[in-house]
Design goal:
Length: about 230
């Protein structure tokens, strides 16, 4: 009778998503290396926990989470969320809210997706970047070490090392032609002559990046071969 009750409990728990079901032989995408007031799905997570394709990770307002995934690391400060997927050569991290900081040794090791926009390392070199969701259409990207590539729909732009930009997705006609903020690139003042379509995003100078960056930069620079 006890075994039947236990079996029934496990079936219902898996169906409800309380206990992740892992097929035999499925490899972990990464491992949690630091966690405080952080969650994997709906359960608390601690250092040493394995992370698999499709797992969602979140932090409380005063939480922090660090995950190593192959040749990259992901850092989440408080009130942030991400969903991880395995892709060819690396990891796709869908930032669902808050801020994400990543370090990577290879261009293919990390791809950050926010509202169908993508931020990737531009080359195979040590790269550290911070990405924050300000609003559903407004992002802030800080290229702390190494150049980045930003792409959305059919448009792509390079973000050079040391720059901090705010990026507005799907600008309206009024926003595209009469934005009051200082653009990061001269072309953002308006469409090029003869351009038939409006650009999918506008890039502006951003504010000062958060305080999470210095700690991570110290780690990466102390160990340049370890992202």
């Amino acid at each position: 009778m006890f075994r039947r009750l236990l079996a029934s409990f496990l079936v219902f728990a898996i169906a409800a998503g309380e206990i992740p079901a892992r097929a035999a032989g499925v490899s972990a995408l990464g491992v949690v290396t630091q966690a405080s007031r952080a969650n994997l799905a709906s359960a608390n997570v601690s250092a040493g926990a394995s992370v698999y394709d499709g797992d969602s990770l979140t932090t409380d307002s005063d939480g922090i989470l660090r995950v190593r995934a192959g040749a990259a690391q992901i850092y989440l400060p408080g009130q942030s969320g991400v969903k991880l997927h395995s892709i060819s050569g690396g990891t796709l991290a869908q930032l669902t809210g808050g801020t994400l900081v990543f370090s990577s040794a290879r261009a293919s090791a990390m791809d950050i997706e926010i509202a169908q926009a993508h931020v990737r390392p531009a080359a195979d070199q040590p790269t550290v970047a911070q990405i924050s969701v300000i609003s559903p259409r407004l992002l802030e990207v800080h290229a702390r070490r190494g150049d980045l590539q930003f792409s959305y729909k059919d448009d792509t732009e390079s973000i050079p090392e040391g720059s901090n930009y705010r990026i507005l997705l799907d600008p309206t006609d009024e926003e595209a032609s009469g934005a009051t903020a200082t653009p990061a690139f001269p072309d953002e003042k308006g469409p090029r002559k003869g351009r038939k379509r409006r650009k999918a995003f506008i890039i502006f100078w951003g504010s000062i990046a958060g305080v999470l960056i210095p700690f991570i930069i110290h780690e990466v620079w102390e160990s340049p071969d370890k992202p």
